[in-house]
Amino acid sequence: MATNPAFEFFLAAYKTVHGLTYEIVADLITNGPHYYVEWWISLLRNAPEHLVIETALCLFIIWLVFIRKTVDPVKSSKESLSKKEVEWLIDTWQPEPLVPSASADNDVVSDTMLTIESVDGNYLHVKGVRDPVLNVASYDFLGMSQELSIKTKAVEALDYYGCGSCGPRGFYGTIDVHLNFEHNIAKFMGTEEAISYSDSASTVTSVISAFAKKGDLLIVDEAVSEPVLAGLNLSRSLVHFFRHNDVEHLQSILESIAKDDKKLRRDTKQQRRFIVVEGLYRNTGDLCPLPEILALKEKYFYRLMMDESTSFGAVGATGRGVTEHFGVKITDVEIIMIAMDTTLASVGGVCIGSSDIVDHQRLSGAGYCFSAAAPPFLSSVAIEALRIMEDEPELLAALTDNAAALRTAVGKLKGVELFSDEVTPVIHLTLAKQLDTPEEEAALVTKLAAYCVAHGVAIVANTFGLQHASAKALRPTLTLNAHAKLSKKEITKVGTVLGAALKACKL
User: Fold this and answer.
1) Residue 466: its pLDDT value, please?
2) Cys-Cys with 279: which of 133, 308, 380, 421 at CB 3.0–4.6 Å?
3) CA–CA separation, 390 and 498 (whole Å)
4) pLDDT score for 76
5) Burial tier of 113 (Cβ tally within 10 Å: 0-12, 13-18, 19+)
6) CA 391: distance to chain centroid?
7) CB of 453 within 8 A of CB of 494?
């Protein structure tokens, strides 16, 4: 039977220790040096090379512990300067500017930026423009900011609560209206719970980074807006982009990852995986193909994050967004984010979902934990806006009609092409003839928008493609947003002014 060397060693050591007597210990103390000399001479005769190595090691240890002097890097790096040298360094020191000098791109942005002095219903008073400017740039699709009851609720809440909330939600910043709004919107959308944030952009960034961490996997549509891109960056996850609304490309990416999992024998349970889309893409004005995406996420075992910041209140029979529009269960989408600064006439954002989804964010959502809670009057305003959405469905019907009319008015113009979905109030127009460079297109689109503003219509020039470094660049566009409270005369004016702008630019 084979013996275990380690067992034999410990057994011998055990027997030796238990066999020690007072006489043996006294003999070792008295004659120890003599025994060591005899051992050393025996080793020199039988294995001189071992003796040389062991002696060198012993000497090295003695030098390392007792002789070698350590050097203090802080003291060694200090140089003694004379008083004259110190004064010269102080006199010649030039601090870096707190704000870097403006680049050429920043100059272009500052030159085209508008200063809005006041808002009066559908019109803006813009500095440098004599007459009021029709506002088709706002995302206030239902015109809630014009409702008298909204303003009344804001004043009442300010009188009752004051302005600020005085702290983060998890500390002492939670007020009853925050909880009431979360309860109301969860009930309105048909989810278990909701959690609100004080800023719409930080809602998206906080939610994504709360669930996706370093080592996790995110499959993302390339046309997502800036808040989603910021959330991807903060999550530090592995990100794959698929072509905008290209379900086949998405499936090919998921299939490729699944094959790699099988080949490398990866345990997919050790990695959180999400597909990230927008319900209504702010950058393109079209809807995500939600039923097809849901089928793929179920097939390949992913969860779905959907940003409904633009689609909430503007899409669906009652404004409940893309899930209502496509007739799918809202519980099929694990995480939904909604902005409060579009159809709710407020500021902030909210994430809806199951109780587990919401509870996780109370300690993991950066914007919830570390930012001050929203002022109470903003939640009061959002509650009132929700009530109006439920009680006055004619607002959404008017929005649908105006979106179709505005689409018709600008879609027939020569020189531009319309590529947004027919059911959305967000309308994007690109130049019919693509220019040589994105910079040239951006300059021309900016010129068209400036002409429209000068002649009474506020249209947005989107040159986001030049800064869209994380994914495929999008072409510069002109963006118009339909509102429920636009009149037919105002819609006609938009088409007339934009047509004149195209002729002025010889398009």
Assistant:
1) 44
2) 308
3) 35
4) 57
5) exposed
6) 34
7) no
Question: Looking up tokens 């959330």, which residue turns up?
Answer: 231
* Unique residue bearing structure tokens 């084979």: 2
What does the pLDDT look like over 38-65, one tens digit per residue? 877 877 788 788 778 878 888 888 888 8
Cβ 162 vs Cβ 338: under 8 Å = no
- Please list, in sequence order, all residues whose beta carbon lies within 8 angstroms of the beta carbon of residue 196, skipping any fewer than 6 positions away: 178, 181, 182, 340, 348, 349, 350, 374, 379
Are 418 and 427 a contacting pair, CB within 8 Å?
yes
Helix, strand or coil for residue 351? strand
Q: Sheet holding 416-418: strands in order across?
A: 416-418, 426-431, 477-481, 460-462
| Predicted local confidence at residue 5, as pLDDT | 56
| Residue 448 near residue 478, CB atoms below 8 Å | yes
Provide the token pair at 53. Answer: 């190595």
CB 234 within 8 A of CB 370: no
Q: Rounded distance, CA 290 to CA 333, Å?
A: 9
319 — phi, psi (to 5°)?
A: 85, 15
Give the phi and the psi of residue 99 in degrees, each rounded to 5: -120, 120
> By the 8 A CB rule, do 479 and 446 touch?
no
Backbone CA torsion sign across 60, 64, 69, 73: positive
SS3 state at 187:
helix
pLDDT digits (tens, 9 = 90+) for 319-343: 999 999 999 999 999 999 999 999 9
Query: Which residue ranges of the chain lie beneath pLDDT 50?
Result: 1, 466, 468, 471
Backbone angles phi, psi at 212, to 5 degrees: -110, 125
State the pTM of this model.
0.78
